[in-house]
């Protein structure tokens, strides 16, 4: 439906506008010769223009770049800033720890840690919590624990899942229906099929076939796929996952790092899931590096009773800076005062308005697109109906259209997540902000379709 020649012309035009608007960002990128890929992290090169935007300041859902351009931020650090940028309670808690109490990191606990553990238990239902600095680390440590306790070597994932840079998770279903390395996997220590099994999301029969091998320690899943669009679970899927894991002696790990958007207790609470382990990261620290994994009481006891396991020193389930006073203070402030139950009500209502408005635009212009929502998070995909598994969602990608859209929206003061078309609401996102996105999207779609 989109004329590719017109798409290329529009992209070229928007790229020129982008370059004209952002000379200081362009210069900063050109001068960054001492950085690998010219950026602090190479994924910052996932950009539609010739250079990334450089940030000068950010508060709430507003970002100002080096050139003084202001944006409505719907990316929010790809969930890391779901609390908004620099929320006041978190800034105050960090300030108290740094300026008044002192001691940003040390090998001693604070009482904030127990408060955070109790609050995470209230929200997610797990009984015993341990901290990390990223969800990737929390996933790695959870994987070590479930392998140790089950005596099994393999972890089962969904194709095109997202669990950070966990080596085992970089597996997809290949054209022959068997597992294979995810395209682009960098320096895998061993062939991923030696450590992992894979099934398509929403494929109960495929999941059961993989579990039947009897070597799966745990199924590690997102309750909805979130890094390849938002692929929602079909009715009954999670019930089947839990039943099959129990039948085949495998544990169930739920990674809530992105699906925390579903509500105060993530999808675990919203969908009444029954995991053995919950992993979460990013958003719970309000911008300070934070992660955590929670265990059921039964599983925690089994692990602690294993005297052959070194979970104190060199057993591979800890980090010197994890659970630091600074990180834990930020988590407490975020959970106690920012990402509260009431805040989620407002965020989800705003996301619903976002979703409804995008659906109206899709219908108005008869676009072959669709949109899914998961609580405070929504994402449109260039396919209809919305894909129901990761492989189909990956096949629906249109990088040229996505780049054009992201450029054009940025030029109109709207930021979406660079990796896809995800929009996230924080507590300060308003209905006026949503309306501004819709106005910009409608203008860009008209230009794409040459309707005026």
UniProtKB/TrEMBL annotation:
The reply to whether Disulfide bond figures as a keyword in the UniProt entry is: no
Q: Which Gene3D superfamilies is this protein grouped with?
A: Aspartate Aminotransferase, domain 1, Type I PLP-dependent aspartate aminotransferase-like (Major domain)
> Which cofactors are named for this entry?
pyridoxal 5'-phosphate
Question: Do you know which PANTHER family this protein is assigned to?
Answer: GLUTAMATE-1-SEMIALDEHYDE 2,1-AMINOMUTASE, GLUTAMATE-1-SEMIALDEHYDE 2,1-AMINOMUTASE 1, CHLOROPLASTIC-RELATED
From the broadest rank down, the organism's phylogenetic lineage runs: Bacteria, Bacillati, Actinomycetota, Actinomycetes, Micrococcales
Q: What is this protein called?
A: Transaminase
| Family affiliation | Belongs to the class-III pyridoxal-phosphate-dependent aminotransferase family.
Q: Does the keyword Secreted apply?
A: no
UniProt KW keywords:
Pyridoxal phosphate
